[in-house]
Amino acid sequence: MTKSPLQQALQRLARNRVAVLGAVLLALIIFGCVLGPILFKLDPQLTQPALRNQPPSVRFWFGTDGLGRDLLARVLVGGRTSLLVGLAATAVSVIVGVAYGAIAGFYGGKIDEAMMRLVDFMYGLPYMFLVILIMLMFSETARGDMLPVFLALGLVQWLTMARIVRGQVLALRRQEFVLAAELLGFSDARLLLRHVLPNVLGVIMVYATLMVPSVIILESFLSFLGLGVALSWGQLVSDGIAVINPIRSYWWILLWPSAFLGTTLVSLNFLGDGLRDALDPKGKP
Amino acid sequence: MSAHPVEELLRIRDLSVTFSTRDSTVRAVDRVSFDVRPGEVVGLVGESGCGKSVTSLSILGLHERPAAQVTGSIRLAERELVGATPAQLREVRGNRVSMIFQDPLTSLNPYLRVEEQLAEVLDLHLQLRGQPARTRMLEILAQVGIPGEERLRAYPHQLSGGMRQRICIAMALLCSPELLIADEPTTMLDVTIQAQILDLLRSLRKQRNMSILFITHDLGVVSEICDRVIVMYAGRIVEQARTAEVLQAPLHPYTEALLQSTPRVDVPGGGTLHPIGGLPPRLSAEKLQECAFVARCPRAREGCKNGEPALSDAGGERLRRCIVPVAEMEATRS
Questions:
Q1: Chain A residues close to B107, C-beta within 8 Å
Q2: Is the model's pTM score more than 0.95?
Q3: Which of A5, A45, A161, B252 has its CA at a distance of 20 to 30 angstroms from the CA of residue B106?
Q4: What topology does CATH give the domain A17-39+68-280?
């Protein structure tokens, strides 16, 4: 049985220890965040005034916060938000960016020119301002809903994706096999979807993997600023920093969310780097 | 040639292709006219940049508007292709006219199995799927000399260069086109594979009575496969004749010079190679005031500077664009 280039790349990925470590850690974190709160019947909002600021113990593995809430529950449930935002916003930006970039690169000329000037213009806008604006616009109609966050982050992140895809498609468009396919009478849609885009898939995958951590950190940053909509790692880190003071430090309140956030980001970056090497074996010495 | 009038398959008249860029216009093809008859192999010869490929790509309507302006007429049987809509062109491409390229390494999609690439064409033009499509694929692979089913499962990178070119040919032949455009199909292959591919094209042409427009700069290849040769220089036709006539008795100094710069192994001592000095002229859209070849022509004379010579009849089916008398060229042939 012969293997497709993609299968071969995945095999190379499986031989990359660092990437595998990243994938395993990521799988554990996702598994924990999704199933943990259900298995242990944890409630992140339950306040227990008698058990405030408890250090980690057998009963509360991660300790409790200033309102006596179980930190393990909060970190796991917060992780759901962070991961969901990371994945969903990345999905939004991949869909928008790939479609936009592919069309611009495929048709080239004036269409490309016009579409890319719009991207340049949007690059010029201060993105944080844009995100805050979008979230404020939606906040009246959809309070507590995470959709505005996905949209706001996704709509800011797609620009780079569009540029990358556009550049790749532009180069591929003039490759002989695309020309050959065109000369066999295929329609533009077919050329693009079957002959051009699969050849850009590797780049899209790598970039998407590396985009997830940057979205997560962006969301954490928003939460840290108090602009988040739901319980997330960013918000927990913000809570943790608030209680750090020279007299009594409740270090666990800061440690756990930071550790989870950091591990996730590092794992995703390991995985992304591994994917890049696996998909481009020539780039590696 | 037969006395009966022959119906042309491809009839090109006054084809000009002009590219406009921001700061200049380039006329890559200038008032080219020629025919390809059913079952005929016509060679389009000339050095790089003389307009061979541009001519062939115009047949398939592959120039991007508005950057390229194509004028004149290209008729495939009864159908006019200049100014055809994209849908009309798609109907012709791959179905009635196919093309194979110079580099078989890059003309197959690296992400699709041979089978998938072939199936796509059958599905598009013949609505053939499943088992009938498979039968047809195996049949065509056998015709191009690739036996066995396992090659169907292969990805392009698992095949050799010669094998890939055969796959490209198979793909081009799937819908039994009337015309095959071969753009230097053997240039990237080594000599033995080159001979095999030429053999293959020759036998396919005989079996199917298919016409081939063969683009090359290699006169050795021309002598092996072409019935007629069209020599292009600076976007113009400078000579047109049957293959043997062109190779033995060229009537244009450019053809003569091309022949002298071709290495020969059949001449004792190998013969001496004479490169053509200088470069082709810049191709502008303005009318030439002199012969396009004058600056590089060993036979240039006063009259060559007085306007561009017309393409004139030189007897038989020969055409030439030169004012040097035929008798003089024949007398001083080296």
A1: 176-177, 179-180
A2: no
A3: A161
A4: MetI-like fold (1.10.3720)
